[in-house]
Amino acid sequence: MENPWLSPWLSIPLEEYEGHMALPEIGQAQMLAGKLEFAVRRYSPKSIAIVGCAGGNGLDRLVGSGIERIVGIDINPAYVEMVSRRFRSRISGLELHVADIQSALPQITSVDLVFAALILEYVDVAMTMRSLQTLCAPDGALVVILQAGGQNVEKTSPSPYKSIQLLAPAMRLLGVDDVKQQAVAAGFSLASSRVVNLRSGKDFVILRFGKD
E strand or H helix at 82, and its extent? Predict the structure, then answer.
């Protein structure tokens, strides 16, 4: 059976994905970079993993941050290659992996902070939470960003970048309570939950977890 996570993400050119996310009426690239920067200030980690790193959105804000090790993980090898081109010479502790987060990860040393934004909508949540739990160090933290469900808006916003519509069949808007329960079952404890609204009319839920 074809994995619905694999097909769309391997078919979307990075320039189209980045162009879509950065559109002023979308505003998600700016929001995600800001939340990544805030999470680093909040936790002051020595190591961080960005799950679904795409082309490295937000990494420019971590240059010179003092983080000793920055791990980028994405399923699309072309995306990971672009992160390497953009940041390898600027971030000394950059470690990159091509991997499907809902499957067994390669041997990756755990990190103090795991940042997983707009990923769970496309994967098996229980399997992915187990992977994130393995990736997160003892006493570490997990930050998850979800697109809120129950809205009268399209899952994928209208865009001049047509390949983005390939995501719609694979995307599932998740119940926040269900995500919390799956995280707790995997060994995390909820620290906080808040909602951010963008000008597109979409709401996004930011969940912070500690690792038990």
Answer: helix 77-87
